[in-house]
Amino acid sequence: VIKYRLYQDVDEVNSSVRTSVKGVVDASNRIWDTAEYTIPMQASLNAVNSFFVMTNMIKTENQLEQECPEYPSARTICSSDRSCKKGSVDVHSHGIQTGRCVRYTLTVKTCEVRAWCPVESTENPPDPAVLRSSEDFTVLIKNNIHFPKFNYTVLNIPPILNTSCTYNKKTSPNCPIFRLGDILQEANQNFSEVAVKGGIIAIEINWDCNLDSWFYDCNPKYSFRRLDDRNVMPGFHFRYARYYKHRDGQEQRTLFKVYGIRFDVLVFGTGRQFDAIVLIKNVGSMLSYFGLVVTAMELAIRVGQCTSFGKSPFYKIYNRRKYEILPFSRKVIYVSFVDKPYVTLIQKPLKTSLQHTEGTIVESHPVKFCDAESCCNSESNEDHGDEQYELGQPLRETFHFPDSQKWCVCGKCRPTERYHEQLCCRSEEGQCITTTHSFQQVVLCSDTLKKALLYKYPFLSLTDANINKELRHFAYKQYIHWSFGSFDLEDRAVVPNCCRWKIRDTYPKASRHYTGFNME
């Protein structure tokens, strides 16, 4: 805000320029003063804030309106009258052809024209220039500027002007009097070379004003450069004539083709002043840019995720930190593998099997499970000797499953076409959790399930008609509590396919028809 002065209101400059050229030179056997080498009317026709200084000329004297041969060129040289067309006018000719071919010199014939005779020759201008000494002329530039928004006016001339000063970029940077030779030197031009054919030079005045009283600064900065191209048709020239009348009434003139330097004074700049409203607007705009920065960073990260770097740990951590998904949202489900120490959150809908769908790690958690020695007491061992004998057997199986599903890595899952049911108890090949002694004791032990049900629901009637349903449903919850470490995720947690069917086979439904995902 401070560096770019965003606390200030801005106004563009309005400007007026007046110039005064001074200098006298003796050239071509005559004295040249300001009236001779400055032509204000020509300047006003080409630029509003310009002045012209003549440096060279071609003079054609004693011209009368009559017939004479045209200046020789490819269009005007002739051999007979048939080469000349009466009344013909060419943009490059000096007059109107009469239809006759006459001698221009002893060896050259040209078409005769009715014009101001003798016609001007098209020879090159004198080199060195006639008024090459004009580089010592000086010009006083008076520049008034006004900032209408702030109602402030200032002049480039100091209150007490030293009229003997001359502008110098280092020693007198605020002097409004300029030596013409110094101007071209600052524009990296040689005055003697430019004076031959002329040129166009820009005098740039830049006003960068701080109008606040505590940091006031409003002084012009001058710079100079050449505007015409020095390689493609360089220079600047025009013609004018001085007319005379003889006693017999015939008019005569002297034609001048003058070359010189046109100086264009270009004024630009801004004024600045403190404005509280502008400050508030700019601060608000800067704050909004922070939102754009966040958007740009988000876009860059998204592009990175689409590349080979998208699988790096950085992006996994970023997604986990950025997105906070409601744990009980219907758009998410949770899975837990027995060989991974964390719970994974997965968003629906699924585009592949639940086993192969990538999710977000929710948290590492201590797996809570029932101590196998305390799940069934000694009394239950006596009452269910046969069951205890069966559950107590060591359950080990091979890990090679040629007929299993592609998404199943334990070999105990059953086929299904539904993506949300294609979930194994493990993430990598290994022993199925349903074949372990712990699963039998913690999840399937009927005595443990009954005691837990009655502890939670004291008045529950465990009759033969509904006992399997109650035990089956509570076995699901028992597995979730064991595998996920909490009952809080019960509604969104998914029981693996192998575990679900093991529970169903242990406590079957009479109809043997299950809806699958709803843990029936």
UniProtKB/TrEMBL annotation:
Gene3D superfamilies: atp-gated p2x4 ion channel, atp-gated p2x4 ion channel domain. One of its GO terms (molecular function) is extracellularly ATP-gated monoatomic cation channel activity. GO terms for biological process: bleb assembly; calcium ion transmembrane transport; membrane depolarization; organophosphate ester transport; pore complex assembly; positive regulation of cellular component organization; positive regulation of interleukin-1 beta production; regulation of transport. It catalyses: K(+)(in) = K(+)(out); Ca(2+)(in) = Ca(2+)(out); Na(+)(in) = Na(+)(out). One of its GO terms (cellular component) is plasma membrane. Its main location: membrane. Keywords: ADP-ribosylation, Cell membrane, Disulfide bond, Glycoprotein, Ion channel, Ion transport, Ligand-gated ion channel, Lipoprotein, Membrane, Palmitate, Phosphoprotein, Receptor, Transmembrane, Transmembrane helix, Transport. It comes from the Eukaryota. It is found in: Cell membrane; Membrane. It is a multi-pass membrane protein. InterPro entries: P2RX7_C, P2X7_purinoceptor, P2X_extracellular_dom_sf, P2X_purnocptor, P2X_receptor. Residues 334-517 form the P2X purinoreceptor 7 intracellular domain. NCBIfam families: P2X. Belongs to the P2X receptor family. Receptor for ATP that acts as a ligand-gated ion channel. This is P2X purinoceptor. It comes from Ceuthmochares aereus.
